[in-house]
Amino acid sequence: MAMNSELAAIVSYIERERGVEREDVLTAIEGAIKQAASHNPGVTNDLRVVINRKDLSLHVYDTMVVSNEETGTGFISLARARRIKPDAVEGEAIEIEMPAARLGRIAAQTSRQMIMQKIRDIERTNVYTDFKNRIGEIVSGTVSAVNRRDLYVFVGKTEMLLPGKERIPTEEFAVGDSIRAIVHSVKPDANGPAVTLSRASAEFVRTLFRLEVGEISDGVVEIMGIARDPGYRTKLAVRTLDEKVDPVGACVGLKGARVRNIVRELNGEKIDIVRWNADIKHYVAQALAPAKLESVEVDPDGGNTVHVTVAPDQYSLAIGKRGQNVRLTSKLTGWHVDVTKAIALASFEDQKAEAIKTLADMFSVSTAIATKLADAGFLTVEGIVESDEEGFVAATGLDEVTAKGLYAAAQAVAELTGVTASAQAEEEE
Fold it and tell me: What is this structure's pTM?
């Protein structure tokens, strides 16, 4: 029999474009045709469908009982039976091949739907098998569709879902954009894509550091905790048992190169890398940086609470924008952190005067401009970079050009001194 070119084209397309094995495709087609044909009143329950694996010709067989008395579905006359099998006798069940066209138009249409459903089931099973052990792995793909905040992403030939709740709020993607995300979950019985991705999870940051920092992947540096506000800030605690290695410096990299690559991947999200400490007071002090603390005390009544006291000019820095700094510190350490202001000291005006002088010298500006910064509550570089540019311009009352220039200068100083994304670098020579 000649090659079934139409079926061959369909099988090749599914095998090539959808990654389904040829034998699985053929088995699915056989099963679908049999299932669809079973509803045809002209066939029995013993119908058998076979596709020749060499030429892909379709063969349909049905089992009939030889009888000269009974007629209709399931029976065949003795005379006709002997034309197929010369030694056939009455009462014998014989298998005869019937034209595929006898299955009918409705059966053919139904089988097409069943075939596609079976192919989708096979695809989902294959995806589950391929990715069930890859949870936590970062994959790269291309955005294929956008449905409100949900993204559909093709990774190779597999369509995956990046739900809106697993996206970084500050970033936007369009169809055709490249994207990296972590495999968040894999479900074989999902109605949509079986693989769910995430860019908002803390594990995404953890895996980025594992890929970027050789000391982490080698086990020399260990990540002890991550607290994240996706798109805005992440706090990462690290430690090492090797006294020759600075765990923070290893994560920051030479001139901040390693952490800068991660910040770029996270669309500018700030990253504070702190040294883990078994002593909760030291750990909290590290985690609340760049705020300078006056005291840290563990609540004597228990309840995993730490009371932190800061100078008035450090209070907003310790709390952070929208309470972010103290909230992430609590999440990172697992302790409730209570921050209060110290009683203002009589020497505060002296401290303010010293801050004005420092700001004037650092930015090469007049004392009048430095005073405006101090009056607005910006006494340190850390305080400036913790504010957003728009808020800084509005708070200082300076003209926009001057204010934006000072903000940019503070960012540059912070980067050089390790205050921002590579805060607490503590790089050793």
Answer: 0.62
